[in-house]
Design a protein that fits this description.
With about 325 residues, the protein is mostly beta strands. About 0% of the residues lie in helices and about 55% in strands. A 5-stranded antiparallel sheet has the order 4-5-2-7-8, with no helix packed on it. Strands 14-15-12-18-19 form a 5-stranded antiparallel sheet, with no helix packed on it. The chain is globular and about 60 Å long.
Length: about 325
């Protein structure tokens, strides 16, 4: 399974630090375009130095999915930039990709983050951006010279907020009058799968904010069409999110839990919706993957005490016999 790990210096000074990738435990690291400097369990780390403002880099990584994984399971992958201490906006130093395991793998698909809860992808009402990733692969018999991704935008989005976050190759974007955005990969020279499986993949990722003033029940549907040269389009799956009212503050990684307050000062409450009476182990890790606290969870909630935790971004994982979840907590 291919993953692109993209990081960018959006500040005003050169940046030196580490890129920390915490992969799902059901994935096994195979290879990457740049070998990691270290690996400890599910955490891989790449060091970088003197990245200039607005410079960005991408590491291509191949992962193998465990044969024991079940259809419908969710995979959670977390990427973080260190250090975060002293950063004026540490919340953008971490990103999470959550995806569901399906049957026959379709390399041409569309993902949304947050994925939301349930079949309607429930998310809290607000103007937080949704992040979309369209992935594609040349499974034909010859090189693809040009690839076009035509993405249908929901009318309830503020199109002026559109931001391209990352792409596998150089891309241009244009919003068309018929509520579609066109991503064009000119002269991409994408080899077919038999010629080079790793290089036959591509993607584009962007964010966009909902319009202000939308109400509970508002739905966001998005579908993409992928054109390889002059061939008929490949139509992706349709993503869905729905605004709903919640009394808690949902993290944008997994909508099956509520974590509040987040950021926290002294304590935070973690509530889960569907634990089905199981007993779970809750681990709190720093961004390097080091476990700093461990709890046993019985029932549907746990309280995280700050105690000796330093300010920064922490990752939690919840593991039971049938359930696995992960998320992030910001300590101020």
């Amino acid at each position: 399974m291919p993953y692109w790990l993209t990081y960018k210096n959006v500040g005003t000074k050169n940046l030196t630090g580490s890129l920390v990738y915490t992969k799902d435990s059901r994935l096994t690291y195979q290879t990457a375009s740049q070998a990691p400097n270290s690996q400890a369990g599910n955490t891989l780390t790449w060091n970088f130095a003197n990245i200039k403002p607005n410079e960005s880099f991408t590491i291509y990584a191949e992962m193998l999915l465990s044969a024991s994984a079940n259809l419908g399971d969710s995979l959670t992958n977390i990427l973080a930039i260190l250090p975060s201490i002293g950063d004026q906006t540490p919340i953008d130093n971490q990103d999470t990709l959550k995806s569901n395991i399906v049957g026959s793998f379709d390399p041409n698909d569309k993902l949304v983050s947050p994925i939301g809860a349930g079949i309607n992808g429930n998310i809290p009402i607000g103007n937080q951006p949704l992040e979309y990733t369209v992935r594609f692969q040349n499974t034909g018999t010859d090189t693809a010279f040009n690839v076009i991704v035509q993405d249908s935008l929901d009318l309830d989005f503020d199109w002026s907020s559109l931001k391209i976050m990352a792409s596998s190759h150089e891309v241009t974007a244009a919003i068309r009058s018929n509520n579609k955005i066109k991503f064009t990969f000119d002269n991409i020279l994408l080899p077919h799968k038999a010629a080079s499986e790793p290089k036959s993949h591509g993607f584009v990722k962007y964010s966009i904010q909902p319009k202000v003033g939308l109400v509970a029940g508002t739905k966001f549907h998005n579908t993409a069409n992928i054109y390889f040269d002059f061939n008929a389009p490949i139509v992706t799956n349709t993503t869905i999110n729905t605004f709903f009212v919640s009394t808690g503050v949902y993290d944008n990684i997994n909508q099956s839990y509520r974590l509040f307050p987040n950021p926290m000062h002294q304590k935070a409450v973690l509530q889960f919706d569907n634990l089905h009476g199981e007993t779970f182990v809750l681990k709190l890790m720093d961004a390097t993957g080091k476990v700093v606290k461990t709890y046993t969870v019985e029932g549907n909630q746990a309280t995280i005490e700050r105690q000796d935790l330093s300010p920064g971004i922490y990752i939690f994982s919840l593991e039971g016999q049938k359930t696995q979840s992960a998320g992030k907590l910001v300590v101020e």
